[in-house]
Amino acid sequence: MIEFRNVSKTYPNGVKGLKNINLTIEKGEFIVIVGLSGAGKSTLLRSINRLHEISEGEIMIDNASITAAKGKNLRMIRRDIGMIFQSFNLVKRSSVLRNVLSGRVAYHSTLRTIFGLFPKQDVNLALNALDRVNIADKAYTRSDQLSGGQQQRVSIARALAQEAKIILADEPVASLDPLTTKQVMDDLKKINQELGITTVVNLHFIDIARQYATRIIGLNAGEVVFDGPVEEATDEKFREIYGQQLEEEQKRGIGAGAE
Amino acid sequence: MIEFRNVSKTYPNGVKGLKNINLTIEKGEFIVIVGLSGAGKSTLLRSINRLHEISEGEIMIDNASITAAKGKNLRMIRRDIGMIFQSFNLVKRSSVLRNVLSGRVAYHSTLRTIFGLFPKQDVNLALNALDRVNIADKAYTRSDQLSGGQQQRVSIARALAQEAKIILADEPVASLDPLTTKQVMDDLKKINQELGITTVVNLHFIDIARQYATRIIGLNAGEVVFDGPVEEATDEKFREIYGQQLEEEQKRGIGAGAE
Amino acid sequence: MSQLSTQTVAKPTGRGKRMFNRVLILVILAAIYIWAFAGVETFEIKETAGQISKAILNGIIQPDWDFVPGAEGLIYGLIDTLAISILGTFISAVLTIPFGFWAATRRDKSGFFVTGIGRFVLSFIRVFPEVVLAIIFIKAVGPGSFAGVLALGLHSIGMLGKLFAEEVEAIDHGPKEALIATGANRLQVLVYSVLPQVLPGFISYTLYRFELNVRGASILGIIGAGGIGAPLIFALQSRNWPRVGVILLGIILLVSLIDLISGYFRKKIV
Amino acid sequence: GSDDSSAEGSGSDSKNNEDLKELRVQFVPSQNAETLEAKAEPLEGLLKEELGIPVDVSVSTNYNTIVEAMASDQVDVGFLPPTAYALAHDKGAADVILQSQRYGVNPEDGSPTDELVDFYLAQFVVKKDSDIESLEDLKGKSIAVQDVTSSAGYVWPAGALDDAGLDIQSDLTPTIVKGHDAGIVSVLNGDTDAAVTFQDARNVVKGDYPSVFEDTKVIATTEKIPNDTIAVTPDMSDEWKEKITDAFINIGKDPEGLEIIREVYSHEGYVESEDSNFDIVRDYQKFAEQ
Amino acid sequence: MSQSQTPKKTVPRPPSKLKHYLTAAIILILLVLSYQRTGSSIMDLFNNRDQMGSLIVDMFPPDWAYFKDIIEPMLETIRMAVIGTTFGAIISIPVILLCANNVNRIPWISYPARFVLNLIRTIPELLLAAIFVAIFGLGMIPGIFALTIFSVGIIAKLTYESVEGIDKGPLEAMTAVGANKFQWIAFSIIPQAAAYFVSYVLYTFEVNIRAAAILGLVGAGGIGLYYDSNLGFFNYPRVNTLIIATLVVVLIIDFVSNKLREKLL
Ligand SMILES: Nc1ncnc2c1ncn2[C@@H]1O[C@H](COP(=O)(O)OP(=O)(O)OP(=O)(O)O)[C@@H](O)[C@H]1O
Ligand SMILES: Nc1ncnc2c1ncn2[C@@H]1O[C@H](COP(=O)(O)OP(=O)(O)OP(=O)(O)O)[C@@H](O)[C@H]1O
Ligand SMILES: [Mg+2]
Ligand SMILES: [Mg+2]
Prior knowledge:
The complex is a heteropentamer, with 2 copies of chain A, 1 copy of chain C, 1 copy of chain D and 1 copy of chain E.
Chain A: E1 2-10, E2 16-25, E3 30-35, H1 41-48, E4 56-61, E5 64-65, H2 71-79, E6 81-84, H3 96-101, H4 110-114, H5 120-132, H6 148-161, E7 166-170, H7 178-195, E8 198-202, H8 206-212, E9 215-220, E10 223-229, H9 235-251
Helix pairs in contact in A: 5-6
Chain C: H1 15-38, H2 49-60, H3 74-103, H4 112-127, H5 130-141, H6 145-169, H7 173-181, H8 186-215, H9 217-223, H10 229-237, H11 241-269
Helix pairs in contact in C: 2-11, 3-4, 3-6, 3-8, 4-6, 5-6, 6-8, 7-8, 8-11, 9-10, 10-11
Chain E: H1 18-37, H2 42-47, H3 49-58, H4 67-99, H5 107-122, H6 125-136, H7 140-164, H8 168-176, H9 181-210, H10 212-217, H11 223-232, H12 236-264
Helix pairs in contact in E: 4-7, 4-9, 4-12, 5-7, 6-7, 7-9, 8-9, 9-12, 11-12
Bound molecules: adenosine-5'-triphosphate (ATP) (2 copies) and magnesium ion (MG) (2 copies).
One adenosine-5'-triphosphate sits at the interface of chains B and A.
Keywords (chain E): Cell membrane, Membrane, Transmembrane, Transmembrane helix, Transport
GO molecular function (chain E): ABC-type phosphonate transporter activity
Membrane topology (chain E): Multi-pass membrane protein
């Protein structure tokens, strides 16, 4: 369970990323967050595992405050949260396999991991995760020699290999072809259903959102403007989530050129 | 006009990016290249303005070989080719405006540009380009303070401001919301039609490809497997472009988990 | 392209303040330079200039080949220097790694205190004169190569530490975030996301330091360590230019060789 | 390698070196030698033969390190110039046993005389056409000197000036240069009106500036400066002190040994010496320490 | 996820690690050989560790009264370091661009350029001093020239290696817009490398203040001579004062350099 209590986030340069968010995400939900580019989707997601410190409020993971957590405690909460990054965040100079294995480090002793001594099991787990996103054959390639989509898939494999209880995915399929997209989304859905893993995904594709989500959250300018089961997310609602902004923009005289 | 003559590209690590490509792209066409992730789409695009040196064959731009071009000549050819990068390629430490203005440098004297003395006109052009992608308000923000989609839009604005005769766009809307996606694609289409600018776009979205393209090229493992007007690109054909691979993969036992 | 509606473009924020800052920095810099140049005496070229520099160059381009062989000649001297430098550089590189991380600013923490101490220690090591360091080690282990190794090893930490720390500060924070998100502890984050990024820099600084140690003759001359330091210094003192020439030639060859090898390594790693 | 011996030959327990297993010698070649070589091996061989124990000779470019090494028992024998010796002795780090002998210097052209001496002189050099004729004329002039610890480059000349009623710091404008050759060059260049150097440092620059002897003149020389000392650590047993003294004297007397020390170190032999020979240094010390 | 069995698909074999082992072995051998050649002995150091402390003890307390005597030479040193470093930095810029192989792809220019840079770095300070004193006489001018050359060696070497490591993306983007070499440099290299350059220049400035020895060699005064004479008299409390004074200056520079870098990074 993830709970946002009056959460706000202001960036050091004054931009308000989140404004007074209150949300409760139950275990096993498959949530898709939609919103305009710059609406605060990534900010929201990254607040959950505290990659961003929030400015106000509190976030609870399974009834424990991650906002207040420290040290080992914080690390253990994070270990149980897998994250797929919008910008992949791979170590470009390391091999694909090493990047994926890095998702496993929190399970082992420091000494073991710094010498790269992962149990055979972990290596298999990593290779399997790569296999699921169709790039097992690139396991020993340096990550900077991959195409954009391949890099994204490594980032997905890393999160899968982590065997977390919550998965946060920031536009996990942006650079993928329809086929791989389907495969990845199916996979996320499958682990969500079979293992009851809470999944929160930022997505730009309305149809995919509808297809996979159990609940949709709409963000606009850092505020929750829609929150409901997928059935309630009608075309009309989507237009609201995005359109509100559009109208404002048009009022200010932009976008005229685009028609 | 862009012409590929028996073009092949092998990466230093032995991966074959392109295999004997023969293509002619006429002035004013709106081409969408589709294919699985890793098929060679980016490689193809980046060969056109010679960001990648090809290993064999020749590429002609308006009947002049870019493969053989040198110095000033090469620069002038490149000035007329705008590029939107899959990984944005922004100077993170520079402001948004400076990144966009950098698209204009080839029009001015060295001295002027290195001191940042762009004519008022250029600055307006740049601001307009930013306006078209809805981020004029971020003009003086440092590029590393932008959301993923915002960075992509800066990269688009830079190419727009360049006022090129050919635009190469590598998944230009991957990180954008549907609204901005429509705006950007409309914009590309508009300059394609009104100014007759040849446009080559890598895309993963079949429906968008159908909606905007005049011609679709399908790539698979570095080879052209489909090339025809948008009407011929039936669902069946798409399945071929992607599916061929899928079947192979399945034969090898992958993807089973995804169903 | 439509005319721009002015209100949509954000006024560059804080531009006034930034302008003020810039002007302030410029004024301060100008003042410093005026002060600095004011103390410089007039510029003049001596009449003996041509004669003496010609004599020096003449000597240098006629190397004293007799000095090359022999137990106290160039080749053995270079080998000694090389051995001392290898060991000294290795010691300093290993010791510097923790220093580098210690002194690097942590963006996520207001760790000025911690970082500040790290920087202070490094600065202190840097200002500590080589001679004094040399004396300290001579008192412990006697004059000779080992004292040279220790003095070089410790002295190099000051410079390497500073460079390492700056390299650590300049990394891409994305991969670091990814590791933090998996629940990795600090050391694991370091090994899996920071180290691969900084390693090329570390190696290239270490090789640079190695090269500095090879040609930094003074400390080895002081320490009675064998090596090429003392002969070079004496040759210079007695204006024995052919001797200087041959020693320089040896050092240049050695340094170029190191440069070639280090270039090769860097290419492999970057 | 000196590793085994320095491990046992040190430590805080002041011991009688009856069991001296290895002799560690260190020296800085003096700049007024004809050849300036960083050669340790020849001396090592000669001493080994005389003493019958392993000898480790090393060369340094700095006196300070030798004294400190002697103070902490890392070096048994050091070659020290007079000023450095006096300081070392007062610090309890060294006792003189010998002084080296050289041929005297011909005041005309700086060539060696055939008289063996255990001292040398410092000189005041000015341009040939200069109207400075005596030390008194130096009042108000600029002068190139060496570091304040240098015997010939500062201490003795300061004493000579004092005798002439001038204070080197307040009546002249001293510029510190590194190396006696640099002093000569500064006079040649006209950077300073005069320079103090050992006699006759002009030989060092003669290669670069062949007419140096025609273009400059020496206006005065100083009192005798004792030659390089050979000093040992104070806690060395008298027996060993004697052995070492004899060894060096023998080397100087043996034609073969003489050949070597002459060629490598410009030494012509060694004579016994005692600490009182250096009281003059202590007298002059006051000019250096301010 | 119960997939700990080996993946069905054939995974490529891991690349051979032989090269790594070989490199490690070579380094190890070099270390062992060096250890022997230098006659190093950790035991020696361990046994005599108390000796190391004695000198430090001698240094305390520092001779505070001496401070006022060294302010003047310290300022003089800073003065020369300011000018020398500035000239060095200016000269370094073209050198960097010639040497960095991602800026200048013509090997027959970059290799000679690097060789010249190597040469510059190899010239001993004593030799530089001898030549400059011969040309310009004693004083600040030869000191400034010597520091300038010395600075070029450090700044150019460090910066060009950093330039070779910068993010390629923006470089590509500037190539694609048809920028000429200067524009390309101004818009993609400089913004990425400026922070490095500034920090190396400031670092070199600091080195130059410490490298006062060079200035002593050319009769330019400076703090180096004071070190020499105090060491000569075994006056360690004064040496300590000198160290503290230098430390203060260095810390100030360090502080400024951090502030500047923060603004640029
Ligand atoms: N720098 C490189 N070095 C070696 N191989 C590379 C490099 N860049 C790409 N490749 C390989 O070349 C093939 C084609 O890559 P390309 O980037 O063209 O794919 P793409 O079609 O753009 O894929 P995506 O949709 O994922 O961006 C891939 O298998 C990739 O791994
Ligand atoms: N590091 C930062 N510093 C300052 N402002 C930032 C930073 N990161 C993001 N922002 C701003 O915060 C707002 C929300 O950003 P966020 O990344 O959450 O958007 P998003 O919804 O994920 O958009 P996208 O779909 O484009 O990725 C944006 O206006 C962005 O410019
Ligand atoms: Mg985002
Ligand atoms: Mg691509």
